[in-house]
Description:
- This protein is of the alpha+beta class.
- Among the domains are: about 5-85; about 260-475, no CATH class.
- Helix content is about 35%, strand content about 20%.
- The protein contains 13 helices and 15 strands.
- It has helices at about 5-35, 45-85, 90-95, 105-120, 130-135, 140, 160-165, 275-280, 285-305, 320-325, 340-350, 355-360, 370-375, and strands at about 145, 150-155, 215-220, 225-230, 255-265, 265-275, 330, 360-365, 385-390, 395-400, 405-410, 420-425, 430-445, 450-465, 470-475.
- The strands form five sheets. A five-stranded mixed beta sheet has the order 7-15-12-8-11. Strands 3-13-14-6 form a four-stranded mixed beta sheet. A two-stranded antiparallel ribbon has the order 1-2.
- A hairpin with a 3-residue loop joins strand 9 and strand 10.
- The relative contact order is 0.10.
- Residues about 85-105, about 165-200 and about 480-488 have low confidence and may be disordered.
Amino acid sequence: xxxxxxxxxxxxxxxxxxxxxxxxxxxxxxxxxxxxxxxxxxxxxxxxxxxxxxxxxxxxxxxxxxxxxxxxxxxxxxxxxxxxxxxxxxxxxxxxxxxxxxxxxxxxxxxxxxxxxxxxxxxxxxxxxxxxxxxxxxxxxxxxxxxxxxxxxxxxxxxxxxxxxxxxxxxxxxxxxxxxxxxxxxxxxxxxxxxxxxxxxxxxxxxxxxxxxxxxxxxxxxxxxxxxxxxxxxxxxxxxxxxxxxxxxxxxxxxxxxxxxxxxxxxxxxxxxxxxxxxxxxxxxxxxxxxxxxxxxxxxxxxxxxxxxxxxxxxxxxxxxxxxxxxxxxxxxxxxxxxxxxxxxxxxxxxxxxxxxxxxxxxxxxxxxxxxxxxxxxxxxxxxxxxxxxxxxxxxxxxxxxxxxxxxxxxxxxxxxxxxxxxxxxxxxxxxxxxxxxxxxxxxxxxxxxxxxxxxxxxxxxxxxxxxxxxxxxxxxxxxxxxxxxxx
Length: 488
């Protein structure tokens, strides 16, 4: 019953073939969408292109489905190989391998694993339960082996260990599945909590994508970082080309360079934890404190990138009066306290054309954030504005009108406020770091209180590099425009 490895290789080659077709189809979709968005394309041509675009999207989706089918076949084949090479489950295997290709799916695969695990553990004298009883051991001890160095490992596959280490079979009161009780006697149906476990500190999951990591970052020397910059207030390339007559004087236009200076301000944290808590807490609390501090600093810096005031050498943000006065574009929204498809589309065209290709939306998360409202929007063709696109090297990725988006609590503006939606390329924000996160511990600061003190000091500064590289959604009555770029 063992499946040859070349069958798996053939299936993987099939995936590569489908991936090539997906890439070609994605390229065709991008070309069609570019034509449709082109201002030179007439409405009549758009109507002719839409059916072709829908057909290509359908073709792409069918290729995605085909890929999932092949991946499922590979998983099934590997499962069969794993089972046939595991000792003691040949009898269960004969009863399991009865499904047809048309009926196989992830649920049936789990049922197959469950059946084999049950058979292996409980099937009469051939089962692990009675084998363990003959040796006077619990099931969990019977499936362990110890090497010469004293390290313990399991004799059964991982999915069988899951059945042993959880209460899936504990309900059968006659079976001693897990462990003995506190007195050392076997505890009827087994303990619901294994004696060996990895402690974990419960925390609300946080966003791992950090806005500050996407900026142009430089190390500040002596509290200041310099960002060389080409002045493009008149000519977008820094120099101009001009027509002239043969033998005539050639016009001179010299480039102008500057150095944008960014100073840094101090950012700190100070926390105290009791000595007893550090000693008795099983989760490695000191290491957790490091994670907490880094997260807090990331939030403070990322929030400053968006809305920092800029005082005392601190970063000043994209959605501030200072940045807007210097050229950050403000687009007036279509309807108060709402975000429309037209608003989102206009933000892309409000920034430099080159920025739009690399730009991303930065939107507030949560119940009062704009993202909750945007999720229900559709474009003029009745398609949701949140769609998945295929990008080479990344696969299928979620996008907002074809651009990347970040949902973050660091954008603190609620739906309807100026800056509830920001569009631009974060790499056009200059972020200076004088001293990265440095965490110090003191046992003496609060010695007479039995407290351990942790302190963090770091220095950051920042400002937008190219002001027209960002656009914010404003109120109904307020809007601004900027030149192609700021010379500031």
